[in-house]
Amino acid sequence: MKISTNKEEYLVEFQDLAKLFGIGESEDDNLSLTHTEEGEGEIQTKFTLIKNGQAKEYEYKYSLNLSLSQLRQKSVRKRKVQNYLYQILSNELGVQLPWGSLTGVRPTKFACDLVEYGEIRESYLVPEILNRDYFVSMDRARLVGQIIKNQKGIIRNDNLIDLYVNIPICPTRCVYCSFISSELSKVCDKVETYIDCLIKEINCVKEIIRKKSYIVRNIYIGGGTPSVLTAKQLDRLLGALNFPINEFTVECGRPDTITAEKLDVLKKQGVTRISINPQTFCEATLKRIGRKQKNMQVYEAYTLALERDFVVNMDIIAGLPGEKLGIFKRTVNTLLELQPHNITIHTLSIKNGSNLSTDGTKVDDKDVEKMLDYAHSTLFKNDYKPYYIYRQKNQLKGLENVGYFRDNYPCMFNIESMEETNTIIGIGAGAISKRVFNLERKLTRLANVKFVEDYIARFDEMLEKKKEFFK
Q: Fewer beta carbons within 10 Å, N or C terminal of the chain?
């Protein structure tokens, strides 16, 4: 779809919405859209949609509440126009999207903002309003309501912060991955220097924490695959993170990188949670997507983790190449036999820059919504509760990723980072710091350079930027 608008700030959302309808930017598309908008208090919006050479005119008028802040006025305008565009495309193409007109990463944050600004009177009305006003399917709208209800423990306090440390290194590259992550074989000679720099940055962050009187609530070591480091390297890195905290998570995503020695180091250094990510229990699929693990390694790693009293999360992906609904159901049922504390159900995202987006592999998405629905209903029946959600661009059918917990084991870092309720200080290559000002309803970001080599080469420059950012 070729899109033009006199409101450039709308263009990204228009393009994202068009993609969710399966409309790309190809010259072969038979749709083009022209949009104009005028006015301040009384807004007049016009769309001209040309389909197969035939033009249709649409006009939408609405009144804007000028007592709202400028930022909120901008948000409301964009939302109203996007809703109207959704209705046009849905009617023209005969398609309804599971998430309706919503295109953002954080549907729960969007809903909570509606409650906070008085557009929804009570949080229990969230499903009804999302379904009625934003065309979200009732199943997805109820899911948002359930997650908001289950997000206990959020404390909005500008002095409470989380730390995120990034290890952008993996044993091999999965076909669906587009993260800035290096294969170990290509950076093995730089790992020790990278850890040296991480520890220097951690020491700089400690000084920031002292000056700002911050209190560290949670630490999360992600990647990449942090457990690709040796036990000695992990010990050195984690030893620098000596904060009294509630929750300390390390991603050990690849079961073939987990050893008893490494888990003993994690336990000694105060780690409370780890992730072990099978992605699927079909070994033919694992080979297809570039993961060398065997199912037995998942079971062995999980046993070692339980013996050391770690809280364990396991990730799986719906819609992997070659997988039908039956295979996915078997993966979900295997997880339920293991009963990890947390389970995260991802929808495959065919990201730009991934091998999957360029190697010609065909992905069949016709069962993916059924996969997610099966996972949700089956986990719910087995006492797992959804507690955080996010969406990514290029996910199959515009669907979602959902984290579930049993008993009393939600990951607070996941909640706080997704809902953007607390400042997060990012450490390492590719890590993003987010400074949250709850009273002003403001958030600012600072990204470290992305690649390990650049992080090492530009370390001093990056450290100065971080000090300035947190002044």
A: C
